[in-house]
Amino acid sequence: MDREEALEIVKAQLTEHRYIHTLGVMETAIELADRYGASKEKAELAAIFHDYAKFRSKDEMREIVMQQGMPESLLHYGTELLHAPVGAYLVKEEAGIEDLEVLEAIANHTTGRAAMGTLEKIIFLADYIEPGRIFPGVDEVRQLAKGNLNLACIQALKNTVGFLMKQNQLIYPETIYTYNSLLAEVN
Ligand code: DGI
Ligand code: FE
Ligand code: FE
Ligand code: FE
Question: From which residue to which does any coiled coil extend (predicted)?
């Protein structure tokens, strides 16, 4: 599937704001793939589709989690987590994307996972640092992303976990496993 076709499919699923975010993730992911030796084609495709399910209803997402035998624990940490694994499922079903690396990068873009591959790290990070993001601390992560993919992902995770904790939100265990795993990789 080429870029134009993929963007057209995704545009119909998203708001204007989220579509612009997606274009930012696409550009950033291609740049990171170039820098860190991953497939630019896969980075482009995963980035374009990463938020495919962002606007599906909570009921539909919960139903897919249960029907498809995804971890039931996903249902107990707020609904923001669901669009990533559910998105990977729907992108396969509805858009016919079969590449497992691409689907995994979509599935894990919100929490990461332990022992992420380079493409997964790239999509996780591109989602955090694309030019439209204005989180406190995002510039520090952008700087780290120029030289060290793992350190940049660690800093993004630290910021996200800190933000969630300040808001008394639950931390999904996989988010912590992601942090521990990245730390082990750099030490
Ligand atoms: O979909 P985006 O907004 O582009 O970004 P995303 O897929 O990274 O989702 C960000 C949201 O996910 C944000 O509201 C924080 C939430 N999130 C990320 N990790 C965790 C989490 N929420 C909980 N409860 N626990 C987590 O570990
Ligand atoms: Fe997302
Ligand atoms: Fe993210
Ligand atoms: Fe996103």
Answer: none
Half-sphere exposure of 122 (CA within 13 A, CB side): 29
pTM: 0.98
User: In angstroms, what is the span from residue 88 Cα to ligand 4's centroid?
Assistant: 13
State ipTM. Answer: 0.96
Distance CA 47, CA 57 (A): 21
Supply the range of the domain harboring residue 57.
3-186
Residue 14 tokens, joined: 């998203």
Ligand nearest to the CA of 111: 1
Q: What is the mean pLDDT of the chain?
A: 98
| Alpha-carbon gap, residue 22 to 126, rounded angstroms | 10
Specify the CATH number for the domain of residue 101.
Answer: 1.10.3210.10
Quick check: CB of 174 below 6 Å from ligand 1? no
Rounded Cα distance, 83 and 86, in Å:
5
Give me the amino acid identity at 74: L
